[in-house]
Specification:
Helices cover 69% and strands 1% of the residues. It is mainly alpha-helical and 341 residues long. The protein has one domain (6-339).
Length: 341
């Protein structure tokens, strides 16, 4: 039976409560200072909307850790420091990009530097199927590719109201459940995952269609970075074929970033140049509404999370299914309520 510690439950609750109060403040600040996302031919929204949702997501996550310090729940360690410092740097990179629109190659260089920092602090991929001990160089290359790739993958799917937030919420809860169900449990990774889920649910309260705020590059890169590092530290050690698990859990963003990159390269375009041909764009062009597009891709993320549980022998499958059902019920209920507004 999966047993969540008080810290995990408390962390999710605290981050949600803090986030619900912070998001409206960020929306108001954005409007007063002109920090808004203006519609164009590549975007589907029709009016200016705050693009600083990442500020609320990052702040609620970090403030929750501060609260846990006072409650003596904080699990100290260099690896945790690497994740929080790296996440903060990724957030700041995205925030600067949201405000000043940085060059794509420069952003990639900084992302590689941040991933390198995490690697040096112990967050690394040290084995793959059939190779239990990678040499340092191969480990470094795989780690950087994974962290940079997943960070940008979340950014890629952030194109429909509520989509990226819903997928990240499902992904983080799934990673948290797997981490806490490992033997021995990885309490640090589980704690970060549940705190991220709470922060993201608070953001979603204001991000479902019609959205009042977008997470922006700051939120997408921060959330993607946490998912990437959590999958390295808390999931890839969970089973004999553990490297498969994060690929299944993060199937939706991985599929989108893979297809987008291949498509752009085949067309002779830079993989870093944004376009309107992502999976969610194709669903919209096929006639699905924004709400239905979110429902389809979020459901896919939930199914992927359930499938990933099969690879983790320590998880009772029926428990994972119950939690997955609770996730989708919560998201759909919140989604339905907000549609009526």
């Amino acid at each position: 039976m999966i047993k969540l510690s008080d810290a995990h439950i408390l962390g999710a609750i605290i981050s949600y409560i803090i986030g619900v109060f912070i998001v409206p403040l960020v929306i108001e600040y954005s409007k007063r200072n002109g920090l808004i996302d203006v519609p164009n031919e590549r975007k589907i929204h029709t009016k200016p909307i705050s693009r600083l949702g990442g500020v609320a997501i990052w702040a609620s996550t970090m403030l929750t850790f501060l609260v846990l310090v006072f409650l003596s729940y904080y699990p100290y360690g260099s690896l945790l420091s690497g994740i929080l410092i790296g996440g903060t740097l990724m957030f700041l990179l995205g925030l600067i990009d949201d405000v000043y629109n940085l060059n794509a190659k420069f952003k990639l260089f900084i992302q590689i530097a941040i991933a390198t920092l995490v690697f040096l602090l112990g967050g690394r991929i040290d084995s793959v199927p059939f190779l239990t001990h990678l040499n340092l160089f191969v480990s470094y290359i795989l780690t950087v590719l994974w962290i940079v790739g997943i960070s940008n993958a979340v950014n890629f799917i952030d194109g429909v109201d509520g989509l990226a937030g819903s997928v990240v919420t499902v992904n983080s809860i799934t990673l948290g459940l797997i981490a806490v169900a490992m033997y021995p449990p990885n309490t640090m990774s589980a704690l970060i995952a549940f705190i991220l889920a709470g922060s993201m649910l608070a953001f979603l309260t204001y991000n479902f269609n019609p959205a009042k705020i977008f997470m922006g590059d700051s939120g997408a890169l921060f959330a993607g970075f946490l998912l990437a590092t959590l999958s390295i530290t808390g999931v890839m050690k969970a089973a004999a074929l553990a490297i498969i698990i994060p690929f299944v859990v993060l199937a939706v963003p991985i599929m989108d970033v893979t297809f987008s990159t291949i498509r752009r390269i085949l067309k002779g375009k830079s993989p870093f140049v944004a376009d309107a041909e992502h999976i969610h764009h194709k669903l919209l062009k096929a006639g699905f509404s924004q709400n239905m597009t979110v429902a389809i891709l979020t459901s896919l993320a939930i199914v992927a999370g359930a499938v990933a549980s099969v690879f983790v022998g320590s998880i009772k499958h029926y428990v994972m299914y119950i939690f997955v059902l609770l996730i989708i019920m919560f998201v759909i209920s919140l989604f339905s309520l907000l549609r009526k507004k």
